[in-house]
Amino acid sequence: MFRNSEVRGCALASMAFLAVWSAFCMWAAGMWAGILAAAGGLCITSLWLWLTGRRYQRLEQLSADLDRLLHGSREMNLEQYREGELSILINQVQKLLLRLTEQSEVLKKEKVYLSDSLADISHQLRTPLTSLHLILSRLQKETEGTERRRLSYEGIQLLERLDWLVNALLKISRIDAGTAVFSRDWVSAQELAGKALSPLSIPMELREQQVICDIQKDAGFTGDFAWSAEALGNILKNCMEHTGPGGTIRLKAEENRLYTEFVVEDNGTGIDPEDLPHLFERFYRGKNASDSSVGIGLALSRMIVGCQNGTLKAENRPEGGARFVLQFYKGVV
Fold it and tell me: DSSP assignment of 69-135, as one string?
């Protein structure tokens, strides 16, 4: 209560006025008059402080109730606020809470509906995509001529790219809708690195790129292995695409008492300073983005890491190239 400057000022002003009034009464009517004036003033001041204290206790209780509402609670005892000067404020808060709850439920239903719709669309797309992939694979084997084989191979690559894009959009929609399930299992950093690098081994070999891994023994964290491999794999793929032939990518992982950290570095062109603030935005394509990039891989990685109590940031190395730092925390941050 006394943290409020107005309450402190009123209390000091009341005490000063009481002292002056008691002195005046003692001078004008005698000692007993001064004592009675002082006693009466103290009683009135004490009553005012007591009522003010009760009001601030109710405000503190209201603040605590609102804090619980902000952190997801939907229960609030409003009976204690039915009378007094807080009734109007509480009535408005109750209306606001009801409106926000309704809007939250509507948004949640819309997100779930969107996620289900995208899942249905992706299912419908996968059937013809799979058929086309089989047809092109068979056509590549049976056709003669270098040009036809090249075109068949490019068609297969485009289909695989389209399939990855559909899967990525579906995963983003599931996370947005809150329907994605993240398990809480022990994830080995060594196994996670192997899983994330496995799909990139052949493209990196064709580019003559080298991967140097420095994984702390027995390092790991509590999270979802499959989703985490998706996040780390997208980052490694981004580094691979922005590192020239013969380049080097370094993957380091270590665990401490606060978090488990993965650091991915390359010696490529680095990240343009104008792109850094927007690098993890959906569908953002930087100045050095390839023609096939759609700007969702890094956005998906940050969403996955964030859902597992982690952080993901990007920066440029002083000696050139990009650096991505993933941290999975052991406690709430």
Answer: HHTT------GGGSSSTTHHHHHHHHHHHHHHHHHHHHHHHHHHHHHHHHHHHHHHHHHHHHHHHHH
Is residue 15 within 8 A of residue 45, CB to CB? The reply is yes
Distance separating alpha carbons of residues 16 and 256, to the nearest angstrom: 59
Kindly list the distances between the CA atom of residue 42 and the CA atoms of 22, 23, 45, 146, in Å, as whole numbers in the listed order: 11, 14, 5, 104
CA distance 296 to 240: 16
Q: What is the DSSP letter of 197?
A: H
| Listed ranges 59-63, 77-81, 170-174, 327-331; the one with the highest mean pLDDT | 327-331
10: exposed, middle or buried (Cβ count in 10 Å: 0-12, 13-18, 19+):
middle
Find the mean pLDDT for residues 76-88: 57
Residue 250 pLDDT: 95
Q: Could you tell me where the DSSP H helices lie in the chain? A: 5-29, 31-70, 87-142, 146-177, 189-197, 201-206, 225-241, 297-306
Better-scored residue on pLDDT, 295 or 197: 197
Whole-model pTM over 0.90? no
**Count of beta carbons in the 10 Å neighbourhood of residue 250:** 17
The mean per-residue pLDDT over the stretch 91-117 comes to: 72
Query: What phi and psi values does residue 118 have, to the nearest 5 degrees?
Result: -65, -35
Residue 300 has pLDDT above 80, yes or no: yes
Q: Any idea which residue has 């950290």 for tokens?
A: 261
Could you count the other beta carbons within 10 Å of the beta carbon of residue 41?
18
